[in-house]
Amino acid sequence: MIEGLKPYAEYNGSGISWAPAIPSSWRTERAKRLFTKMQRPVRPQDDVVTCFRDGMVTLRKNRRLRGFTEATAFSGYQGIRKGDLVVHGMDAFAGAIGVSDSDGKGTPVYNVCKPGPGVVANYYAHTVREMSRAQWILALAKGIRERSTDFRYEMFGNQFVPLPPPDEQAAIVRFLDHANRKIDGFIRAKRKLIGLLNEQKQAIIHRAVTRGLHPDVPLKPSGIPWLGDMPKHWDVLRAKFLFRPIDVRSKTGEEELLTVSSSDGVVLRSSRTITMFKAESYVGHKLCWPNDLVVNSLWAWARGLGFSKYHGIVSTAYGVYRLRPPFQTRWTYFNELLRSSAYDWEFHVRSRGIWKSRLQLSDSSFFDLSVVIPPEVEALKIVHHIVSSTSELNMAIARTEREIALMQEYRTRLTADLVTGKLDVREAAANLPATIDAGNEEEHSNEISEESEEEILES
């Protein structure tokens, strides 16, 4: 994709820390000389526009609504117009910067900027996102709570940014649009493959944790409507007889930080590339120990739960539960069971909330859950069967996820090289096809990226 791209012939120092050298034909300018901060009134027909962390700024209804708290009042909202550069005041550090593709209204925490003459807004969307990636916004903006900054227009406006000639701004945007369409198509195909592999994996797990390993075993009614029959020698108990709540708080705040992932359960927070700030202190936060069940109460219905392998700190909003005797040795089975597709529906119907995107599982609802229980030896055999039967699927999923990660790294590096002038795309952009294949754009616009889903879940 970048074969034949070469650097510019000559460079000068820019005085910009995250782009120290720029082509000699470029200038630098303060952002406030290029954009005007707008504060438009909201019109009756305006729908809500959302600035996503993947750089898309669009009507919220154009993408899935899961993960958002719907406002009941729009006090202070401002008008947004198609073509505005929108910089999220609290999430810019995480990449929530882009050009709106629609007219609408947005929260007052957005910096809504109208480009001036000779300014290609999409070029500066890429440029300011590069400022974010380089953590320059994080260094500038003061953190006001965990997971956010306070990046006001005054901070943005006072920053010097590269100023290529308008035709070069347009060429860079044209080339990046072309490259991103190809990259997005590749990533979509890989994610579909992961989805199919996960379906196969869940089918194996579902069968094993609800019916056991022997197809001819005698059955009996389970008393659980969605399950139907179960092996005759299995039991069903409500969760209150299996678990007890644990609410122990950290006295030092120095234990390992943990988080809950929809794909992997309880993981070390240091193992995830999560764009969030750490709290000033974790004294008073909840603790969990190995073999404890940790539940993100707002996302239990989306597999936001799992048994921990670690001792560490979790969110105060999480539920922590410990198996009672004699069930402690079966924690690996219960981990597979409660994170299986079999229990997705069960957690969903037991979660309550005003908004679909924030359904909360209370302690009482969790303790009322019916849980199927095989004998101890059989439970361990089921786990062994799941591990051996899904190992190749897990390896295939890991390989595919790595391919996606490498392509995303390539996109990041390409964008950085182009917006800072490390590579000259003028000729390459001029030779791109005149018509652009937009066949997959609608599919993309209706999806929240996997990274955004994970950010929402781990909040």
Describe the fold and architecture.
The chain is α+β, with helices and mostly antiparallel strands and 459 residues long. It has helices at residues 121-133, 136-140, 153-157, 166-211, 331-338, 341-350, 363-367, 376-419, 426-430, 441-445, 450-457; strands at residues 11-16, 19-23, 27-30, 35-37, 49-51, 57-59, 78-80, 85-88, 97-99, 104-106, 110-115, 142-145, 148-150, 160-163, 219-221, 229-231, 235-238, 243-245, 256-261, 265-268, 286-288, 293-296, 305-307, 312-314, 318-323, 370-373. It contains eleven helices and 26 strands. The strands form ten sheets. It has a four-stranded antiparallel β-sheet, covered by helices on one side. A hairpin with a 5-residue loop joins β5 (49-51) and β6 (57-59). α1 crosses α8 (376-419). The longest helix is centred in the middle third of the chain and has 46 residues, at 166-211. The radius of gyration is 25 Å and the shape is elongated. Mean pLDDT is 89; it is low at 437-459.
Short description:
With 459 residues, the protein is of the alpha+beta class.
Please describe the structure with a list of short key phrases separated by commas or semicolons.
34% helix, Adenine-n6-DNA-methyltransferase TaqI, Chain A, domain 2, disordered C terminus, 459 residues, 4-stranded antiparallel beta sheet, 2 domains, alpha+beta, 11 helices, 26 strands
